[in-house]
Amino acid sequence: MCLYDKRSTMKRNLKEWIEACRQGDIVSDDPDLLSDERVTRELMRQWDRVPETRDESLDPIKRIVWNRISGQLSLQKAQVRMRLYRRLCVAASLFIVLLGGYAFLQKPEESVRCEFSTGNQDKREVLLSDGTRVILGPNSRFGYPERFGSDERRVVLDGQAFFQVAPNSSAPFSVDVDGVQVTALGTSFEIFVPTDRHCVETILRTGKVRIDHPSADGSATESHVLLPGRRLTFDRTTRNTTVEPIDAVRYTEWISDTGQSFKNERLQFILPRLERWYGVEIRPDEGVLGRGDRFTFKITDESLDHILNLIQSSSGIKWQKDASGCLYWLY
């Protein structure tokens, strides 16, 4: 028998084998595959690719063909499953990212907080995420969130700072100063706390602010609305509040000046700011503060000793300091 006739015979036997598998007379690795006409066509196509052979046995060739087809179909199934798995992974990842972004946007306030401080004769400016401009005075600390929430803007201050608040009626801007809260809506103001923290001063240049502080007996919270050109002072010891008219622009000139300027000011106003500027403690006698002397001068890079000598020469108020240079007495 020639090779062509032998191959034709093998092909007829293969068709018979396929039909037997369909009828259940032969058990295959995956009988369901043979129920599809596409499998039959693929099986015959693979058969045509089998090399010519002189082997009289058809079974090994049938098994080779079947293994090739079964393996190819299994690979195709695996590839389909892998593509589907990858698509599901991408969809799940995208869902997680979107869900995380939604949760982030719903946070009332970003958890990351920032803080910066200043030293002697130092000033620093920071622009907050909402556009609010803050100028921090000497020897002061300021804390704020990296990003504000949608319904409030809260910061913390210890020392001196000037605020130029960006308007946002849906998110009030408030400054916490050790139990005293100053709330503003689109305004510019200064807060000053002496180093001994016995009081909190708020000076309003523009707009309107509300100051909330403990009541006299400490059982409740009292509120005061401050108008431009006014200074409110809350005394922590007596818990009394005083409001007085001032030249707010002149009192806040330090934000644009290279130093500190005082024009016809009393020592009650000057000494706490000298303490902040130089990072020292100044203890005046009661008689010194009661004299009513007023002074006009400007500080740039002069030493505190030089400034106190000027005060002494113009008023007769004497001073001395301890060995460390951190404590001064006026008498």
Show the helix and strand layout.
Elements: H1 3-23, H2 37-48, H3 59-106, E1 113-117, E2 124-127, E3 133-136, E4 141-145, E5 153-158, E6 160-164, E7 173-177, E8 180-184, E9 188-192, E10 199-206, E11 209-214, E12 221-226, E13 230-235, E14 241-245, H4 248-251, E15 260-266, H5 267-278, E16 281-284, H6 286-289, E17 294-299, H7 304-315, E18 319-321, E19 327-330
Parallel strand pairs: 5-7, 16-19
Antiparallel strand pairs: 1-4, 2-3, 3-6, 4-5, 6-9, 7-8, 8-11, 9-10, 10-13, 11-12, 13-14, 15-17, 18-19
Helix pairs in contact: 2-3
Largest sheet: 7 strands, mixed
Number of strands: 19
The number of helical segments is: 7
Choose one word for the global shape.
elongated
Q: Would you identify the regions where 5 or more consecutive residues have pLDDT less than 50?
A: 1-7, 50-58, 70-110
Mean pLDDT level: 78
What does this protein look like?
The protein folds into three domains: 3-104, no CATH class; 112-248, Jelly Rolls (Sandwich), CATH 2.60.120; 257-331, Phage tail protein beta-alpha-beta fold, CATH 3.55.50. Helix 2 (37-48) crosses helix 3 (59-106). The chain has seven helices and 19 strands. It has 331 residues and is α+β, with helices and mostly antiparallel strands. The chain has helices at residues 3-23, 37-48, 59-106, 248-251, 267-278, 286-289, 304-315; strands at residues 113-117, 124-127, 133-136, 141-145, 153-158, 160-164, 173-177, 180-184, 188-192, 199-206, 209-214, 221-226, 230-235, 241-245, 260-266, 281-284, 294-299, 319-321, 327-330. Helix content is 34%, strand content 30%.
